[in-house]
Amino acid sequence: MSLDEKELLARDAKRNIGEELLQAVRDIKAGKVGRVSTLEISPIAAARQKIGLSQREFAKMLGVSLRTLQEWEQGRRTPSGAAKSLITIAIKKPEVIKELLAA
């Protein structure tokens, strides 16, 4: 059941935010973790990290803009063509890309 604005203001007026924050820090220090968030890394980002390239460097290697690479890593767009092939190699055999970059 959601509260209306008046009820929220009344509830919040009774809160001691400073004490709540202090208690949260104490809980964390004591190992009592509340909410835990996990972040899934896309296969493209994982491959890029294995190769040891920044997003800017990887985008340049693929011949695409930084923004395009970011869109791919965030799953908002899908690579195609030569970039897709290079990314597939980077995912399956990152050592090959490392070797080629070192040459």
Automatic annotation (TrEMBL):
Molecular function GO terms recorded: DNA binding
InterPro entries: Cro/C1-type_HTH (IPR001387), HTH-type_reg/antitoxin (IPR052359), Lambda_DNA-bd_dom_sf (IPR010982)
PROSITE patterns documented for this protein: HTH_CROC1 (PS50943)
Domain HTH cro/C1-type residue range list: 44-80
Pfam families noted in UniProt: HTH_3
Organism superkingdom: Bacteria
Keyword Transcription regulation included in the entry's annotation: yes
Annotated transmembrane regions: none
Record keywords: DNA-binding, Transcription, Transcription regulation
Protein name: Antitoxin, XRE family
